[in-house]
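Service request form, structural biology core

Requester: graduate student, group of Dr. S.
Request type: structure prediction, single chain
Budget code: on file
Notes: please return the result as structure tokens.

Sequence provided:
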Amino acid sequence: MSRWQRGGGGTITLTQLLPVPSSWKRLRSLAKSLPHPLLRQRAHAALRRRLRPADLLVVCHGNICRSPFAAALLARPLVAMGIRVESAGFVGPDRPSPRDAVRVAEAWGVDLSTHRSRLLTPQRVRQAELIVVMDPAQGRAICERFGRSPRDILALGDMDPEPLVVRVIRDPVEQGPAAFAESYERIERCVAGLVGALASLPCADATTGDRNP
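Core staff response, request fulfilled:
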């Protein structure tokens, strides 16, 4: 369905923000060489080794376009599963979503008119049991800056059922309604795959509170 793009704020890229260790370089090189079906299989296999998270954090650069939209779609089914969903970004707290984001999101029944961007903080990162990013570089930055394990990071684009070669969910900011529609359509596909995967995961033992298999 054709429906009507990322939180802006600055031009510094995540790869410029911090150094990339050699281990990350090797993993990134391997990931780039894998066809999308294998990346999707790998993402599903990694999820199957987890328990169902109680807290899920969706992250993009500025938290005004992609991550709040994805969080809204995820929250609809996940709240009923007992999963709390939030979103945040690397820059610019307390900013509204762009007009195009608000207008295009309405086609999915998502209201971004009152959304204000939230900053990615150590507390938010620490609380989240699964962190969903729009760009693998964002996942690397979270691991480096906040000390999270790569196993706690999921690139949402890897859940796309379409045979695409680009892992990044494109940032549509300042690119017009058509770019937002393309980005949001892909997010919708990926969210559906992620929800299905999370629904199949076992819940944590309520008596022990242990959330790691």
